[in-house]
Structure formats: C-alpha cells, structure tokens
Amino acid sequence: MFGDLFEEDYSSVSNNHYGKGKKLKTKALEPPAPREFTNLSGIRNQGGTCYLNSLLQTLHFTPEFREALFSLGPEELGSLEDKDKPDAKVRIIPLQLQRLFAQLLLLDQEAASTADLTDSFGWTSDEEMRQHDVQELNRILFSALETSLVGTSGHDLINRLYHGTIVNQIVCKECKNVSEKQEDFLDLTVAVKNVSGLEDALWNMYVEEEVFDCDNLYRCGHCDRLVKAAKSAKLRKLPPFLTISLLRFNFDFVKCERYKETSCYTFPLRINLKPFCEQSELDDLEYMYDLFSVIIHKGGCYGGHYHVYIKDVDHLGNWQFQEDKSKPDVNLEDIQNKEEIDDPLMILKAILLQEESNLIPVDQLGQKLLKKIGISWNKKYRKQYGPLRKFLQLHSQIFLLSSDESTVRLLKDSSVQAESDIQRNDQQLFKTLTSESSRLNDRPSCPHWFDINDSRVQPIKEKDIEQQFQGKESAYMLFYRKSQLQRPPEARANPRYKVPCHLLSEMDAANIELQIKRAECDSTNNTVELHLHLGPYYQFLNGALHPVVSQTESMWDLTFDKRKTLGDLRQSIFQLLEFWEGDMVLSVAKFVPAGLHVCQTLNGDDLTLCEIEITDGEDIFVWNGVEVGGIQIPTGSDCEPLLLNVLHVATSSEGEECQQFIESPHVFPSNAEIGTVFTALAVPEGVILINNTESRDEENWTTIPKEDLKKTFREQGLRNGSSVLIQGSHDGNSLLTKQGKWINTVNEINWLQVKNLSQLESEEEQVKISATLNTVVFDIRIKAIKEFKLLKELAENSCLRPIDKNGKLLCPVPDSYTLKEAGLKMGSSLGLCPGKAPTSSQLFLFFALGSDVHPGTEMEITVEETVSVRTCLKIMLDKCGLTGDTWHLRKMNWCFEAGEPLCEEDAKLNELMICSGDTLLLIEGKLPPLGFLTVPIWWYQPRGPLHHWKDHQDQTNCTLSQGGVWKASSTPGHDLALLGVFHPIPSLPPSLDGGK
Ligand SMILES: [Zn+2]
Fold this sequence. Notes:
alpha+beta; Cathepsin B, Chain A; Arc Repressor Mutant, subunit A; Ubiquitin-like (UB roll); eight-stranded mixed beta sheet; five-stranded mixed beta sheet; binds zinc ion
C-alpha cells in the first residue's frame, strides 16, 4: 500500500561537497567532508532512506535510548569483528546501531552511512527499503531490536522506554459491572481528519464515552441480557517516551483513492495527558510531556521526502538562529570592527586568553573558535590561511605547539602583548564574542532545535515547528518525552558521555585517520608542479630565450607545496642544483611563439607561493637576474616578443613588372616602435601595411600613416602571427590604388602551371610559367610552347584552357585577356590544347545527349554568338550523327539537371543570355508550335472522396471539396492521365493545388 511513498524528492538531497572545482586526479582521494558549523552529523541518503534517517536521528537524540543501548557491552552483544565466525553469537543489529550512534556523536564527518545497519536488517535492495512506511518502520525496527536483544539485560529496553497501555472499559448501566480489556501500545495512532489538533483527537479517544442505547444495546455477561452501557477508553500506563503517528494518509472510499490530509492539525510543545488517563491522582508533573521530535512528510500521498525537526536536549550541537545561518556573519553584526573577525590571529589569541594557563588542545581550540564565531576554521579561514595547525606553526612567535602538536598555548610575552592588543583594539569584539556564545548556547529557556534533512543539519527556532501544522509539508509523527526526565549535567555538550570505551577509541582512531587523509588531500591540493628553466642552458636569440641543447635538458620539473615560501623554494632549488654559484633569481617566464620570455622576477622570500600567485604548471626561469650567455635580456610583459610575418617586395631579375614577395618571420619587442621594421629589414623608407587577421584579403590590410610610425607594435594592435607588409616608396603605386586600397592578393606565388595537352599520344608534360596578374594569356601560351619545345605552327592553332579541381578542361581563355581579366589565379593549372580559342564574338559551348549528363563526357562546339537556337541544335545533332525534328534544346541548370527548354527556336544565342562555358542538352520531344501552350490535364477518378473529406476536416476549413479533390487526384498511387502533353511537368500549378 505504501509502495511508492518513499520515492525520493531529489531536489532536497544535499549537494555533494566533494571534488567541486578540483582536479580529477585528487577526487578519488578526497575524504568525507567534516561537520558543518552545527557540529552535528547528518546521515547520507542511500536512496529512499530519508524516512529511516529521520527515525534514526530521533532515536539518536533520545539520550535515554542511546545510553541504554550503549550500556550493553560486548560480553552481551558479541563483537562485530566476530560476525563472520560461524559459532560466535553476535547481535548485529544493536551493535550496528551502537556504532552508528557513536559515529553520529563523535566522528567528524558531515554525514554518516547506514549501509551497515540496513545490511543487518537484511535489506539488501532499494526495493526492500521502500517497502516500509516510517510508522511501520518504527515498529519493525523496535521488533527487530527486541528480538535481537532477547536473553540480554537489554531485553526490555523497548518496553521500558516506549511501552504503554490503554484500557477499554464497558460499564453496565444496570449492574454497574465493569468489563475491561487492556491494550498494549508502543505508539499511538491518532486521526487527523475532522480534528483540529492532537488534544482534540485525544479527547475524542480517551474522554468521550460511547453509549449503548435503544437499538444498540450491550449484552452484559453479569445480567445475562441486553442492557444500556457506556464504553470508554483511557490511558492506563504512560511510557517515558510517547510516540504519536498522525493518520495523514487516508482512503477516500467514494473516489476510491488515497489522499493526504493536509488540513491544519496543531500539537503543543508541552502536553498534559492527565485528562486522558485512568488515574489522575498524581501530581500534574507526572503527566507532562515535552515534544522533542517531529518527523515531517513533504509531498503528496504517492511520494515525497521526509526530514525531521529534533530538539538537541543535551546541547551537543552548535545552535544558532536560522537568520544567522543565511548571513553567516550576522551574529557578529554588533561588532564594530568587523575586520577583526577576518583576522584569525586576533580571535585565536582571544580564545586562548580565556583559558586558564592559556593552554588548550588544538582540537578544542577549533571547536571554541566555531562556537565563538559560528563558523568553522575550515569554512572561514582555511582557504586563505591553510589548516589551523599549520597556521599555529607559522605564527610560532605567538603560539607554542606541544611537540606532538596536540596542545597549544600562548607564548608568555605575546600573551601580554595580545592582551594589550585586545584591550586596545577590540575589547568590543572580545566582549561580544563572550556574551554571544553564552547567550546562544547556555540559556536554558532556549531549546536547541535542528532540522535534520539527510546529510544537512540546520538550526531552527522552536516557533518554526508551527509551520508543520498543515500543508503539503506537514508533521507526520510526533515524539514526546516525559518532562520529569532530567539529563545529568555531565551529559551537557559532552558527546563522549556514556559512550563505551571501545567505541570511543574506535571513533578517535577513525578521526585521526580522517585527519591524516584530509591533510594528505590538502597537501595534494596544495601541490604545484613547477617547470624550472635553467638560465645557463639557455641562449638569447631573435628576441627570446631558446634552449641551447634540448628542452628536456634545460627544463626541470619540481613538485612543491604552495603554502611554503619563496625562500623555501629557492632553498630547494639550491639543493637541487649543486653546481649553482652566485646569485639565484627566480622569475616567472612564459612561452610565447618567439620562445621563452621572462615576465616578472619573484620577490619576497617570506611570502608563500600562494600569496605570490604561483599556479600549477608555472614556468620559472632560474638565472642571475642580469644576463644569459653574456646578453642582457629584456624582462617584463611590456617587452614581450611578438612573432610577426614580414612581407616585402623583392626586385626580381624581370624588373618591376614582376613583384616577388618575400615572407619571413621576425621578432620584435611589443613595446618597440613600429618604424623599427625598416631598420630590421634594412629598408631605407617606405610604407607599412599591417594585417591582424589570418586572411590576406585586401580589406584586412591597413596602411600605417607616417605619423604613427612612432607608435609601438602593441599600440597598433599587432599580435603574434600578425602580418606586416613593407613597400619601398618607389613601388608603392603598383600595389596601392590612389585611394590607398590594396588591389591584388598578396601572394608569394608568381607562376602558372601549363600542361601540354596538344599531342594526344605524348606523355603529359607540365611547366611552370612565371607571370603576374597583368600578364597577357597569349604571352603565357607562347612561353609554354617554347618551354615544351613544340613546333612554331602550334602557336597559330592552340589555346589555353583552365583545368578545374576535378581535372575538367574549361572554356578556352581568349589570348588578349590578362590573367586578371580571365579570372585566373596564381598557381592555377592550364591545359595547352589544339584548336583556336573562340574570338570575342564566338561562344564555346558544351553539349550532351539526353538529360543524364556524366561530367567530363560532354561534347564541345564553338559557334558565333548570333546563331539561332535552331541552327545551334542542327550543328549539335550533326556532331552526334543524328537527324530528325523531334529534338529540342534545354540549358543545364546549376545542379546538372535539364532546365527550361529553349522554346524560341529562332532567337539568337546571345539574346537568350547563353554564354561561353554553358552546357546545352539535346532532349527528345518536339516543342509546341509558337503561340500554343502546353497545358497539363489531370483526370480525377472519384475514389473514396468521403475518406479524404474526413481526413482533412480537422485540419482546414477552406474550400474543402475542391481542395480535397485536388489533393486526392495528385496523391501518388492515384491514376494520373496526361493528355496531349509533350513532356511531363513534375508538380501541380499552385493555383490548382487548392488545399495547400
Ligand atoms: Zn450488568
């Protein structure tokens, strides 16, 4: 019935604190997080165990239960170490519960695990855990524990604490005979429906009488006949701990479904049970009970989440108001000098001064700090100051740690000093801290309530409980304890109280292990790997440092704790480099494209690497601080070397006609004047253009005005990889238009490739012909013929045809064109082919038969641009050896398919915008005579129009009969009749396709 009640609401599962923003390699080593500022441990959610966690925390915060369990020693329960031995009597459930309680009390972790305990219940799968309701679970747990404790002194533990009785009585109105029946209970189930609160419900159950009357008489055994009678119930024996289950989940028999009763249901913090009891002669105090736990169900009746409000009777936790929690420093808001809180030195001194003899165990110092400022060392200071112990060590002029580092005390002089410090500077703080802690922790009238939600533990105010009277999130189980139960003063704020020795030592050992793990993890997290670059192994070349031999020899890796100081680092490096003589300067270096550059020299030997912001993987240059290989080297990020591509025009043997660009890498300090480029390249003067993009398109080049030549490379926005072009002023005009714009693509390529395709049989030769974009195609052709050593006659009857990237020969280029006019790019390939290039009045066309064209198989033709379509068709048919008049021409479109037919057969090719290089297709079929139209006609066969009507009805309200009809007729698979059509048109004209 409660099958899915325990589906988790994962939004309320607390966040994992491990590994956030840390390196993956350290993640596995990360020990569990320490306790939060409340200093209480939560319980991890194992998947659907929030109800179990709430119940276990309630039992844990029932000190009498916890201590009764702890009082059972190994001689009665056995020992967990023996649990796998076949003949050993080990009572696993109580042992696991003991251990869990010990962990909750003492183990410094944010949340404990219940895995071992649920294993001891024999619950191995999630399914088994989800089978139980929290009220059921309470009984199951008690019964399991009771069974497990049979034969020990703890056999009556549950009964002693939780067992009560109810007496049901029927009184005969005739003979006054009382017939009674006693009922045992471990918890009371009370109605929620139509009841205003707990007292109301108890009144209905234990005060109101039921009268047997009229039609409903009672058979009295004594009178032996049907009589009038009264039935009542009373609480006879009250247990020390009263557990009340609220019937929030009901079944609606009309709707036949489960529902959650969310109406208002009040319950008092203190309740007097006297009116509900059979005997009422005792003192009122005997009937007083105090609320100490409220298990809350959040969600609907088919799922949700449980958490619990618990009163920390023994003041084990660090309790603060909730508002303080959301603003961690708010409880200190009345401190005028808030920076003092940020100074851990001041606070630690203040705490130690309060101690007699100023001596205290280091662990306690941490706890006192937590109590004073409401936040732990790890939370507040660790990031900045490292672990507490380390901090104390570092300030050895103030704190004296014992040799085993377990206790700390103030050094005598400094305690005097500190006292005066405090009196002078923050008397206010000192006072406030003291009063704050006493106000929060020691006022008896202020009960310490916590909201324990799996791993998360937060302080709440007592009045927050009222929020759980009603609603989707509301109280589900109530736990009261007899007000007369007093806690011994020794138990107050003492988590070790009554914990058996073996568990104390187990927890102490586990805490030490945790500390070690955390320290290890801490040092892993604080380790940086440094790359040391040794000056003597470097040389200064081309504006940057380069290893003399190899990178591996010149670079040493060093792993170092970043909490150590620069002085420590220098010392370690000295030890590492036994050969080192003289000064050692450590500088942060940086790899830039030009090489290694020294950015900043490290100063301040007493600062930690953390403080001087050394990060993992930093490159450190180790040198004498002045020179490398006798060269004084520039340092600082200002003069970081830039690696630039410098292009300049070299005068070639061909004269100014041929512009040959030489591109070379050059390194300049970024704070040098841009004009230094001239000196570097030994160019007397000229124009500088810069380009900060990878592309060398003309719009990306900008000319530096003469007055800006004094600006630095950085000021001009130059980066590594930027390009700089230098033009001597004498050749400026050929590269720049009058507007100062870049004309040609700057390119070091100044040739074209020509393949000899003039002789079919010969082997394919190719030559490179140097050229510029202004070279005329004729010149290239003649040069190629010379290079190929071909017959001069070929000059009269050959042409150059560009070869595209698929190897296809394109339309011949007219001889008179320059390369630029012909749209040819430097470096492209041309074929030297037999046949004349078309004249300016001629068209060079490709053509093919049918619409299925295989690229490269087209035929070619040269015709005057003024011939008619009809003539062109005839020439093409002739070339194919075809005759007849059942053909027409179509232009091939850009996706290599037959496009529109050339209908006007008498039109001239140039009128139809046919250009050289176009492909025409010879298609079978006669075009209609001029003045006639081709009209496609579809024959509609009425086949199931109602069906279509129905289909389209939902979607559209337009002219459905027509739309439906046309849709139907054009649907594939329907009969389609084409009458008097020369060629099919693939789609319906839009005007007829009415449905769309
Ligand atoms: Zn009777």
